[in-house]
Design a protein that fits this description.
This protein has about 400 residues and is of the alpha+beta class. Helices cover about 25% and strands about 35% of the residues. It folds into two domains: about 240 residues, Beta Barrel (Porin), CATH 2.40.160; about 100 residues, OmpA-like domain (60s Ribosomal Protein L30, Chain: A, 2-Layer Sandwich), CATH 3.30.1330. It is built from seven helices and 15 strands.
Length: about 400
C-alpha cells in the first residue's frame, strides 16, 4: 500500500511537469492568442466554483454494491494555464460498512440479515487537488467543447458517529480478525486520518461561464476509517455529476496594426556649379494615394483607426474627382480554407467601399475587387488579412 501511495504522488508530480513544458510550447506557437481573439476573451486562466452530487461506496467484506450511499461535494479552484489547475475539494455525507460471515450468537453464525450486516457512519474528506487537462498536453487548440482532467489530491479525512457499529459488536460476537478501531463511544467517537486521491473528470463546456461533467475518484484512507482494523488501508470510490461556474476571464490583447515604414530618402551631397536657368512654369502634379487597412483573424468590421484611413482616401477623391480608386480585399493563406477566405476578403472590401460611399465618394469613382487568398501582397502571412485602396 505504501508503494501505491508513492506511485500516486509521483504520477501527480510528473503530470504537472509535463503540463508546464507543453503549455510553454503552446504559447510560443501563438495558437492560444488566435483562439482568444475569436472567442472575445482569454480562455485561460480563470477561477471556478464547483458543486457535485452522486453516490459513493467502500470496499470491505460486503459487496460494494450493497454499501452505496449518496455523497455530495463542493470545490473552489483556479485553472492557472490550459493544462494545470488546482482546487480545494470537500466531499462527504454518509458511508456504509458491513460484515460478511463474521457475526455469531454463541456458536450460531448470523447470515443474510441486512439489518445486522450493514451499518452507517458520517465522514468528510478535504483535499487539495492538482488538475491536469489531458487534451491540452498534446493539442495546440486549448478551447474545445469537451475536456478530460486527471486529478491527484492529498488531504485529511474525518469520520464520526459509528453507533450502529457499536450496537452490532455489543450484541454479537465478531470474528477474531476484526476489531473496533474507534473504541467505545465514551472514549472516542471520531477520528482524523489521511486521504490520498486519484480521479478522472470529464467536463462539457456549455457556455462561457458554465460546464457540466462527471467525476470518478478513488480515495485511500487509514485502516480505521470504516471502524474495523483489517491491516490494510480502506478505499472509497465516488461517482458524481458536477456543475461548474467559471469566472475571472481576461480580455484578449488588441492586435496592433503593422506600421508601414516609408522608403528612405536620399540626398545628393555633391556640390555642383549653379547655372542660372529660366524659371519653369508652374506644373500641377497629381499625388497618388495608397492606403492599407489590416485586420485580425476572421475580422471584417471597421473601427475608428480604420475609419481614419478611409477619411484620407475620401479627401483624395474630393481633390481628384476625375480619378478612380481601386478597393481590393485579401485574406491570408495560412489560416482557414479557400472557401471561407473568399468570403472574408469580399466582406472586407465591400465594408470599406460602403463607408467611402457614405462619406461622399460616388460608386462611379470606385472599383471593388476581392482576391480571397489567391493573391498574397505581403510576405508576412498575418498582414495579408487586409484591404488595399489605391488611386493614381
Amino acid at each position: 500500500m505504501c508503494n501505491l501511495k508513492a506511485f500516486i504522488i509521483a504520477s501527480a508530480t510528473m503530470l504537472c511537469s509535463v503540463g508546464a513544458v507543453a503549455q510553454e510550447e503552446s504559447c510560443i506557437e501563438g495558437g492560444y492568442l488566435a483562439e482568444a481573439q475569436e472567442l472575445g476573451y482569454l480562455p485561460y486562466s480563470y477561477n471556478f466554483i464547483q458543486v457535485q452530487g452522486g453516490f459513493g461506496t467502500t470496499f470491505t467484506d460486503v459487496s460494494c454494491w450493497k454499501l452505496l450511499t449518496p455523497t455530495y461535494s463542493f470545490a473552489i479552484g483556479r485553472m492557472f494555464s490550459p493544462i494545470l489547475g488546482a482546487r480545494l475539494h470537500v466531499n462527504g455525507w454518509k458511508a456504509k460498512g458491513g460484515f460478511d460471515d463474521y457475526l455469531y450468537v454463541g456458536e450460531q453464525r448470523v447470515v443474510n440479515s441486512p439489518s445486522v450486516l450493514k451499518y452507517k457512519y458520517s465522514y468528510i474528506n478535504t483535499d487539495l487537488d492538482v488538475m491536469v487537462n489531458v487534451f491540452n498536453i498534446f493539442s495546440k487548440k486549448v478551447h474545445r467543447p469537451f475536456d478530460i482532467y486527471m486529478i491527484a489530491g492529498l488531504g485529511v479525512n474525518y469520520a464520526w458517529h459509528n453507533k450502529q457499529f457499536e450496537g452490532i459488536v455489543s450484541q454479537y460476537e465478531v470474528g477474531s480478525d476484526i476489531s473496533n478501531a474507534w473504541g467505545p463511544s465514551q472514549k472516542k467517537e471520531n477520528l482524523l486520518s489521511h486521504d490520498i486521491r486519484l480521479g478522472l473528470l470529464a467536463d462539457i463546456n456549455i457556455a462561457k461561464h458554465w460546464s457540466v461533467g462527471a467525476e470518478v475518484d478513488f480515495n485511500s484512507m487509514n485502516d480505521r476509517f470504516n471502524s474495523k482494523y483489517k491491516n490494510a488501508d480502506d478505499w472509497m470510490m465516488t461517482g458524481q455529476l458536477s456543475l461548474t461556474y467559471k469566472f475571472g476571464f481576461k480580455e484578449p490583447p488588441t492586435p496592433k496594426t503593422p506600421a508601414v515604414t516609408p522608403p528612405p530618402v536620399y540626398q545628393n551631397t555633391q556640390q555642383t556649379e549653379t547655372v542660372p536657368t529660366p524659371a519653369p512654369k508652374p506644373v500641377v502634379t497629381e499625388t497618388p494615394v495608397k492606403e492599407t487597412i489590416f485586420y485580425a483573424l476572421r475580422e471584417s468590421d471597421l473601427n475608428s483607426d480604420r475609419e481614419s484611413i478611409c477619411n484620407k482616401v475620401v479627401e483624395w477623391c474630393k481633390k481628384y474627382p476625375n480619378k478612380t480608386i481601386t478597393v481590393s480585399g485579401y485574406a491570408d493563406k495560412g489560416t482557414g480554407n479557400p472557401k471561407l477566405n473568399v468570403g472574408y476578403a469580399q466582406q472586407r472590401a465591400e465594408k470599406v467601399a460602403d463607408m467611402l460611399k457614405k462619406k461622399g465618394v460616388p460608386a462611379s469613382q470606385m472599383v471593388v475587387k476581392s482576391y480571397g487568398d489567391t493573391v498574397q501582397p505581403f510576405a508576412d502571412n498575418d498582414k495579408n488579412r487586409c484591404v488595399i485602396i489605391e488611386g493614381k
